[in-house]
Write a structure and sequence with these properties.
This protein has 169 residues and is α+β, with helices and mostly antiparallel strands. The protein has 3 helices and 8 strands, in the order ααβαβββββββ.
Length: 169
């Protein structure tokens, strides 16, 4: 026995123009929603620590950076070096770099706040001549880094670094 066929009714036909318009609205809504989402920070996307953009060798800070500074001269006398776990700094009175171990880093806007592990010092008689362990900031265990551009930073309120630092390239 043959099946009864459904009657062709105007309500069952799809209006192609209305369907295209509906799909365009959905696509536009999705595109708008995706563009409004905040973009993740590049360092976090790559699985790097929040201060990864600072990694490398920097000069200046103790003195103004000469405009004729070559890459070789910059790399031969670094003032500050940022790594994943350490920040190293030069002083005017020592040949060796002072090393600080990073405890935490917090990023807010264009400023990174470093907190260092406290340095354990011995009795006063043993620490005579011990070099400075901080950066001349409000605390020897803190450092605030303010970005002034991709290759220029400052250490605000740090007496030991009154001038900007530039990345060695």
């Amino acid at each position: 026995m043959p099946r009864p066929s459904r009657p062709r009714h105007p309500d069952y036909t799809v209006n192609a123009a209305a369907e295209d318009q509906r799909m365009r609205r959905i696509a536009l809504s999705l595109f708008t929603a995706l563009t409004l989402l905040p973009a993740p920070a590049p360092a976090q996307v790559q699985g790097q620590p929040p201060h990864a953009a600072l990694f490398g060798t920097w000069t200046g800070g103790l003195f103004p950076v000469p405009s004729t500074l070559t890459t070789q001269a910059c790399l031969s006398q670094p003032v500050v070096i940022f790594t994943r776990d350490l920040v190293l700094r030069a002083t005017l009175t020592e040949q060796e770099l002072t090393q600080r171990e990073i405890e935490t880093v917090r990023v807010e806007g264009g400023t990174e706040e470093f907190r260092f592990r406290p340095v354990v010092q011995g009795p006063a008689s043993l620490t005579i001549g011990l070099r400075s362990v901080g950066f001349g900031c409000e605390s020897p265990d803190a450092l605030h880094v303010q970005r002034r551009g991709e290759n220029e930073i400052t250490f605000p309120n740090c007496a030991d670094f009154p001038n900007p630092l530039v990345r060695c390239r």
